[in-house]
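Q: Please design a sequence for this.
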C-alpha cells in the first residue's frame, strides 16, 4: 500500500482524484470502458468535486455504490443515494450507468442478489473509498468478515460508526442513525484493480496508524488494504499525525 501525505485536504483530494481519473482513462483506453466504485461521506466531498471536473468520457463509465443505510428512502437528507446524485451523477451528464443500492427495498435478500449479480458481470477498475474512525471500510465494521464472498452484505453498524455520522453533522443524535446497512464486502472491494483511499482529519489518525502500522486483522478492517497490489492511501497531515514515521512526510 502506497501512502501519500499532502499538506491540506484540498491538495490530498486533488491528488487522489487525479490519480483515480488517470486510472479510469487507462481502463477506457485499454478496454473501451471503465467500471468504478464510489463512496460517500465527508472524506469524499472534496475528492468528488475534483473528479467530476476531470477530462473523462463518462459515457464509457459504469459506477457502483459502495454502501447505503437501510430504511432510509433515496430523497432523505442523509441518504447516500441523494449524496451521490448531488455530488456525482448530476455533475457528470452522460454517465453510462450507475447501479444504486435500494436499501429501502421490501426484500433485502433479493436486493443483495441483484447487486451481486450486477457487479459480477464486469471487472472493477477503480474503487474510491475512505476509512472510518473505527477502521471500517465501507460499512464492514470491526471485527470484519475477511472471508465473506458475497459482493454485497447486510451489516450492523457499531456505535463508533453511528456516532461518527453525528459528529460529522449528518444526524442530530445517535438514535437517529440507522443500525443496519447494505455494504460492499471486503473481498469485493479488493477485486478492484486500483484502490484510491482518501482519508482526511485528525479524527482518523488512530485508524490510519492501525491500518498502516498494526497487524492485518479483522479488528481494523482497513488493514486488509495492505494485501492489495495497487492500493494508495491519501492523507492530509492531520490524518497522518499518528504514524510513527510521520516526520519523514
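A: Design:
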Amino acid at each position: 500500500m502506497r501512502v501519500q501525505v499532502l499538506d491540506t485536504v484540498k491538495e490530498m483530494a486533488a491528488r487522489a482524484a487525479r490519480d483515480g481519473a488517470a486510472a479510469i482513462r487507462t481502463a477506457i483506453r485499454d478496454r473501451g470502458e471503465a467500471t468504478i466504485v464510489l463512496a460517500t461521506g465527508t472524506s469524499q466531498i472534496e475528492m468528488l468535486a475534483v473528479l467530476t471536473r476531470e477530462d473523462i468520457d463518462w459515457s464509457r463509465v459504469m459506477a457502483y455504490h459502495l454502501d447505503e443505510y437501510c430504511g432510509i428512502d433515496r430523497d432523505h437528507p442523509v441518504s447516500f443515494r441523494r449524496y451521490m446524485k448531488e455530488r456525482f451523477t448530476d455533475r457528470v451528464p452522460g454517465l453510462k450507468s450507475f447501479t444504486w443500492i435500494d436499501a429501502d427495498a421490501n426484500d433485502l435478500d433479493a436486493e443483495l442478489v441483484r447487486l451481486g449479480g450486477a457487479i459480477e458481470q464486469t471487472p472493477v477498475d477503480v474503487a474510491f473509498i475512505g476509512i472510518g474512525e473505527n477502521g471500517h471500510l465501507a460499512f464492514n465494521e470491526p471485527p470484519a468478515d475477511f472471508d465473506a464472498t458475497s459482493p454485497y452484505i447486510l451489516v450492523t453498524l457499531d456505535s463508533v460508526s453511528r456516532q461518527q455520522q453525528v459528529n460529522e453533522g449528518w444526524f442530530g443524535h445517535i438514535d437517529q442513525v440507522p443500525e443496519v446497512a447494505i455494504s460492499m464486502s471486503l473481498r469485493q472491494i479488493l477485486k478492484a484493480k486500483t484502490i484510491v483511499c482518501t482519508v482526511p482529519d485528525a479524527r482518523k489518525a488512530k485508524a490510519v496508524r492501525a491500518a498502516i502500522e498494526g497487524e492485518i486483522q479483522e479488528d481494523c478492517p482497513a488493514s486488509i488494504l495492505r494485501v492489495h497490489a495497487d492500493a494508495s492511501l491519501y492523507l492530509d497531515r492531520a490524518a497522518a499525525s499518528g504514524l510513527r514515521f510521520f516526520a519523514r512526510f
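Q: Thanks. Anything notable?
A: The chain has one domain: 2-248. The mean pLDDT is 95.
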